[in-house]
């Protein structure tokens, strides 16, 4: 290791890369990290954090309606530039925190685009540096459509720097990003239409929750067109025309395409070194995040596996402990909780009902749909759905699902119970907190 400048060079200072760099350095490795953009990666700058701030901001539109039923009155006005300015201030603060974390861990930071010249050499803005191991943590980027007029298509990155709130928004796609941003902008008064090529929104989630969420989102004013695709975009005066395959022409101010993400592997020189890339461009790695080239590793979205920030952080931890520590940190991918911060939000952990029937010899399903107590005095009509999926053979809870206010906070706690192997009998024996939505999970019959 003494023959190289560093024990580890990390390419990409997002959540996974920074965690790996910090932990490796704390374990005694000489570490450098390089980044061509802002510290924190997608999550901090154009992903989880600004999106959640927008979600909070848009929720006040609903809270103000609810407040009237509780005796509150008065007018309130929304100012988009204020939300944008305050969001930018928070992101700048987080960028600074990431820098402080790296400095405190004594990780050298290099700014600029990186390219691998050989299995141990990285060139950053013309300067070459060597390392015993190289970790690729460059994340991913939004996909753009291959249609006429594609240059007019915008991605989620553009949402977070919009100078003016649009009047009409076309959202293409129906996954996490599409539904979250549709909900935000609808609540802020934008006329939103979702166009999705599939038969239902949120592919891969439990069907009961997908259908429930579809109805709730439409009830809030979002138009959803399924089994439909955008064939062409055209400029039309100050707006943009989207021609659909059903013959309809939609006029919009903001054509947002949220049709998936692709790993950031272009220009790194990986294939020339023998690093295997998957069909979608992700780096193929083994259980220790090692590529076909033993000194080159990868974690996070660039591997095109589970695109979640906490997963990237956990993978960075695993990598650092495996190669610079005792190697005793392992990840359980079986029950990873996740949330779609649409309105109402959806959260889930474990198997869907359909998945359970494929993996368990017999399945019991418990389901409840109800109006939360808070909304019984509001003119807003929003229903919550909760669902437990149980392996009937051993009574173990294998899936917890919820769409409704507070779903993320509730499911996080249930994920701990599932990790501990809780059975339906354990849920039944647990005393609920009354009156809450969470207690519904322990009184399901």
Question: Can you offer a commentary on this structure?
Answer:
The chain has helices at 15-26, 41-46, 48-68, 80-104, 156-159, 176-187, 207-219, 309-324, 353-359, 407-419, 424-429; strands at 6-11, 31-35, 108-111, 114-118, 121-124, 127-136, 140-142, 168-172, 191-195, 223-225, 230-236, 239-244, 249-252, 254-257, 261-263, 296-298, 338-340, 346-350, 363-370, 384-391, 396-403. It is of the alpha/beta class. The strands form five sheets. Strands 1, 2, 3, 4, 5, 6 and 16 form a seven-stranded mixed β-sheet that branches. A five-stranded antiparallel β-sheet has the order 17-18-21-20-19, sandwiched between helices. The mean pLDDT is 97.
The CATH homology group name of the largest domain: FAD/NAD(P)-binding domain
Provide the CATH architecture of the largest domain: 3-Layer(bba) Sandwich
- CATH overall fold name of the largest domain: FAD/NAD(P)-binding domain
How far apart are the first and last residues' alpha carbons, in Å? Answer: 61 Å
Radius of gyration: 24 Å
Got a strand count? 21
Overall 3D shape: globular
Total DSSP helices: 11
Regions with little confidence, pLDDT below 50 for 5+ residues:
none
Mean pLDDT: 97
Q: What is the percentage of strand-forming residues?
A: 15-25%
Judged by helices, strands and strand pairing, the structural class is: alpha/beta
Largest sheet: 7 strands, mixed
The share of residues in helices is: 25-40%
- The number of domains is 3
Give the CATH level 1 class of the largest domain: Alpha Beta
């Amino acid at each position: 290791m003494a023959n190289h400048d560093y024990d580890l060079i990390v390419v990409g200072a997002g959540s996974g890369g920074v965690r790996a760099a910090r932990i490796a350095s704390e374990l005694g490795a000489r570490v450098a990290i390089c980044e061509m953009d802002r510290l924190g990666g997608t999550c901090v700058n154009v992903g989880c954090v600004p999106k959640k701030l927008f979600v909070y901001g848009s929720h006040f539109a609903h809270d103000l309606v609810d407040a009237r039923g509780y005796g509150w009155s008065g007018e309130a006005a929304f100012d988009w530039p204020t939300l944008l300015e305050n969001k930018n201030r928070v992101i700048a603060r987080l960028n600074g925190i990431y820098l402080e974390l790296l400095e405190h861990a004594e990780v050298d930071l290099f700014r600029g685009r990186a390219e691998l010249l050989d299995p141990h050499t990285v060139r950053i803005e013309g300067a070459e540096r060597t390392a015993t191991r190289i970790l690729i943590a460059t994340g991913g980027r939004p996909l753009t459509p291959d249609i006429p007029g594609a240059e007019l298509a915008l991605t989620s990155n553009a949402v977070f720097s919009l100078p003016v709130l649009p009047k009409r928004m076309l959202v293409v796609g129906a996954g996490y990003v599409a539904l979250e941003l549709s909900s935000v902008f609808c609540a802020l008064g934008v006329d939103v239409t979702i166009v999705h090529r599939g038969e239902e929104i949120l592919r891969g989630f439990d069907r009961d929750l997908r259908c429930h969420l579809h109805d709730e989102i439409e009830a809030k004013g979002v138009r959803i067109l399924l089994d439909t695709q955008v064939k062409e975009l055209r400029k039309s005066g100050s707006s943009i025309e989207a021609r659909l395959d059903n013959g309809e022409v939609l006029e919009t101010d903001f054509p947002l395409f949220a049709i998936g993400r692709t790993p950031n592997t272009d220009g790194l020189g990986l294939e020339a070194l023998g690093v295997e890339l998957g069909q979608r461009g992700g780096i193929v790695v083994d259980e220790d995040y090692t590529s076909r080239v033993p000194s080159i590793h990868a974690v996070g979205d660039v591997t095109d596996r589970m695109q979640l920030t906490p997963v990237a952080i956990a993978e960075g931890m695993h990598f650092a402990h495996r190669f610079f520590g005792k190697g005793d940190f392992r990840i359980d991918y079986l029950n990873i909780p996740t949330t779609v911060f649409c309105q109402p939000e959806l959260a889930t952990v474990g198997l869907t009902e359909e998945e359970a029937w494929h993996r368990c010899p017999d399945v019991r399903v418990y389901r409840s749909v109800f109006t939360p107590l808070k909304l019984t005095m509001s003119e807003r009509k929003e229903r919550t759905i909760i669902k437990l999926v149980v392996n009937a053979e051993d009574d173990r809870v294998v899936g917890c699902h919820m769409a409704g206010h507070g779903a993320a906070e509730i499911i996080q706690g249930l994920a701990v119970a599932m990790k501990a192997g809780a059975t339906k009998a354990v849920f039944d024996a647990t005393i609920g907190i009354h009156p809450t939505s969470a207690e519904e999970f322990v009184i399901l019959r």
